[in-house]
């Protein structure tokens, strides 16, 4: 039986980055950029008006005489008429400023009557004009290779004309729940059956990482499992919830072996999640997760999400354990490394307190928690002491 740290290391070392992909910018948030992005244009690409108003020669406005309005320029228009001396043009926000104008006066500072415009103030030369290239110069580095793209980057990519960018590939995931007692939520619950809670939970967690995977329920028979696993092994990652312990119908490890999956580890010195299985077939990663919901949740944070991120070339793939102060004693009473369901609060620092629970199947305790606090093998942590924790908040 290996340690928790050894299990994470084994997963990371077997997760090999996928080939790069050209990704639509709308789908790129959360992916790592595998190219430098430089602007091929100036932004703005022309002098544009920053307000609704009138394009003028500021020296003429300074004289205090009304100017004749000779037209209108809307955003996206080209204006061919040249305004001569004593003339101006009404202009909308984002429209190109005509070459003769050196200022735009806001419509609030003007009044128009019979085609002539009076101005209550002169904004001055250069006022309310966004100059060509003042935001981005052609050739400027917009995003560097290795950047994890956030939603705030998308507008910048679009503004310089990029519809697709080169990113790390996102793995395809097959999600399987084992057990003849499982029923999809929303269907009629038969005798001796329970609703499938792990499947929707894992599906939602995958979705938060940009992956769509619907859970498939498979009965605990070698024939059914073998057929389902053979199909699933075409994916980059196979997630199997249930069937990895020591019961008569925990058939997953044996069926995977019959399909040529190499077992890297089976059983980890950790609670929850002791029966955790991890194997590989070619480049496909196979995770067999104990069936309890809390173990599923912990396994996703510690092993599965990091594997997804490493396959996608993200540099920040390892789970982030932070330091907090214990608001009460943590005494898990287990010889294994314990990851204890905890409430996580932050004031000047993180405060950790154990969530009372009835074990790894306590779904309400999981719903009330905000993290897992780590306690060393056979140990405890006293109130006021520091401890490391992992959070999904």
- Specify the number of helices: 8
State the major sheet.
6 strands, mixed
**Strand order in space, largest sheet:** 7-4-6-5-9-8
CATH superfamily of the largest domain: MoaB/Mog-like domain
Apparent shape? elongated
The appropriate CATH architecture of the largest domain is 3-Layer(aba) Sandwich
Number of domains: 4
Count of distinct strands: 26
User: Looking at CATH, which topology of the largest domain would you report?
Assistant: Molybdenum Cofactor Biosythetic Enzyme, Chain A
Average pLDDT, rounded to a whole number, is: 94
Roughly how much helix do the residues carry, as a percent range? 10-25%
Name the CATH class of the largest domain.
Alpha Beta
Helix/strand class: alpha/beta
* CA-CA gap between termini: 31 Å
Q: Please tell me how large the radius of gyration is.
A: 31 Å
Q: Beta-strand level of the residues, as a percent range?
A: 25-35%
Low-confidence segments, ≥5 residues, pLDDT <50?
none
């Amino acid at each position: 039986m290996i340690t928790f740290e050894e299990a994470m290391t084994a997963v990371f070392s077997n997760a090999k980055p996928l080939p790069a992909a050209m990704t639509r910018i709308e789908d790129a948030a959360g992916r790592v950029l595998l190219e430098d992005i430089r602007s091929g244009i100036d932004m703005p690409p022309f002098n544009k008006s920053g307000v609704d108003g009138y394009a003028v020669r500021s020296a003429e406005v300074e004289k205090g005489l009304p100017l004749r309005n000779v037209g209108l320029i809307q955003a996206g228009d080209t204006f061919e008429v040249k305004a001569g001396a004593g003339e101006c043009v009404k202009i909308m926000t984002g429209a190109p400023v005509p070459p003769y104008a050196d200022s735009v006066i806001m419509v609030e500072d003007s009044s128009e009557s019979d085609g002539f415009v009076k101005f209550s103030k002169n904004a001055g030369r250069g006022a309310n004009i966004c100059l060509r290239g003042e935001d981005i110069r052609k050739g400027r580095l917009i995003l560097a290779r290795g950047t994890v793209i956030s939603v705030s980057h998308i507008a910048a990519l679009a503004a310089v004309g990029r519809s697709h960018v080169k990113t790390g590939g996102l793995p395809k995931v097959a999600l399987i729940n084992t057990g003849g007692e499982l029923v999809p939520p929303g269907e009629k619950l038969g005798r001796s059956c329970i609703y499938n809670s792990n499947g929707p939970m894992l599906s939602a967690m995958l979705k938060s990482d940009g992956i769509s995977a619907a859970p498939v329920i498979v009965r605990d028979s070698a024939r059914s499992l073998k057929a389902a696993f053979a199909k699933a092994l075409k994916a980059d990652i196979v997630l199997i919830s249930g069937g990895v312990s020591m019961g008569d119908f925990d058939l997953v490890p044996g069926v995977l072996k019959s399909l040529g999956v190499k077992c890297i580890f089976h059983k980890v010195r950790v609670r929850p999640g002791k029966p955790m299985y991890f194997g590989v077939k070619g480049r496909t990663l196979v995770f067999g997760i104990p069936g309890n919901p809390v173990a599923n949740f912990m396994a996703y944070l510690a092993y599965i999400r990091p594997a997804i991120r490493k396959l996608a070339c993200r540099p920040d793939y390892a789970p982030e354990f932070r330091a907090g102060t214990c608001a009460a004693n943590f005494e898990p009473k287990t010889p294994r490394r314990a990851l204890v369901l905890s409430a996580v609060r932050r004031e000047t620092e993180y405060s950790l307190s154990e969530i009372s629970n009835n074990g790894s199947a306590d779904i309400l305790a999981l719903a009330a928690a905000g993290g897992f606090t780590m306690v060393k093998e056979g140990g405890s942590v006293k109130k006021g002491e520091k401890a490391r924790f992992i959070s999904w908040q």
